[in-house]
Amino acid sequence: xxxxxxxxxxxxxxxxxxxxxxxxxxxxxxxxxxxxxxxxxxxxxxxxxxxxxxxxxxxxxxxxxxxxxxxxxxxxxxxxxxxxxxxxxxxxxxxxxxxxxxxxxxxxxxxxxxxxxxxxxxxxxxxxxxxxxxxxxxxxxxxxxxxxxxxxxxxxxxxxxxxxxxxxxxxxxxxxxxxxxxxxxxxxxxxxxxxxxxxxxxxxxxxxxxxxxxxxxxxxxxxxxxxxxxxxxxxxxxxxxxxxxxxxxxxxxxxxxxxxxxxxxxxxxxxxxxxxxxxxxxxxxxxxxxxxxxxxxxxxxxxxxxxxxxxxxxxxxxxxxxxxxxxxxxxxxxxxxxxxxxxxxxxxxxxxxxxxxxxxxxxxxxxxxxxxxxxxxxxxxxxxxxxxxxxxxxxxxxxxxxxxxxxxxxxxxxxxxxxxxxxxxxxxxxxxxxxxxxxxxxxxxxxxxxxxxxxxxxxxxxxxxxxxxxxxxxxxxxxxxxxxxxxxxxxxxxxxxxxxxxxxxxxxxxx
Length: 511
What we know:
single chain, 511 residues, Immunoglobulin-like, 4 domains, 4-stranded antiparallel β-sheet, 1 helix, 5% helix, 49% strand
């Protein structure tokens, strides 16, 4: 109260979180009122109220809790203060919250926004109005973005909810929102604004991954291979009008058909299979499979798988022959059985093992095994194992073809056998006994001695004989000349000398 009848009233009306509502009323000589929300001020300050006659009343909030506040009041010089009853006027206090059901969405997805308007004061809030705004990149699908004007009693709330659709990728900020309201005396208030909310909108599109598998991965020439193409949509949008196509390797037989899929949803998958026959050996490469498709906006995409390989093996075929060297032998002598193995097939023979079961008349040489391992024989390759035997009986010994068994496996692990094509015969004779051998040796020596002796004896020749006496001279009788007769041969002379011829009519020399 002032010295000239001025009278003022300072009221602490309500407490809020970290603040207090204070009202200053001039009662006389004039009537006016001013209300303000005060926050703690460390030092003197706060609200300043200017009265008539240049008199001033200043109020500041020193501290505040949930149930107590300390005010500093200063009046003009000479004014007196009296403490009144602590009966604060009931005032409303509106608190606004804004929430969304998700902050990360894909393009085309929806977001639900909920705004809650609550009166946490102890007075009634009137003419409460809230209006939110929809930022660019979002569109309102349903609901309302505004509330009021409406009345909200103490400790009551009202809610508005609406649905937005994300139309474009990027970062979008939902703005803050606040409420305007009045107390029962008509004083106007504005709530604290909510915090902005950031929404991340991702681009949505189909993302297809294509993989290829084959079964089996190792086959024989002429067998069938099955190709499986798997298509997985790992994107966040459906793929439209898929066409899955596969190709054959060079030299394969088959006609793979394309597969059409109208739609493949996100996280879904589909498969396409086709078969072909292989016609050549070796490692063949299957070309990658290809998939074309569209997104929801009609854009074309294409994806491919990696290729795959298949190992194609041939079939080995072992031809077997055998021979005996020498073809004739005597009992106790060594005989060689030579085996020729030729791979005439188009596949490799693995784990080749030769087992020879000789007839009873032949016995393996000491230390000679009857089974040998040759390992691998590739197409066109030839191997020639040998076995050495001792003949223990005489006669014609047959070595049949099935006494030689060849065991081997193909590249698929299947076991095969082969035998020699034909039988072979060995002639074995008895050896000459020692007595007979000695007799033959004696005869031979005698023949040799006779021949040597015959060549060493010198024959008698005519020069060594005594001269014959001259013939008596006979009377000459004239004769008529005739042609000489051919000489006569008298046969060989003693001592191996050639015979001499004697003219006819001549006397024969006496021996």
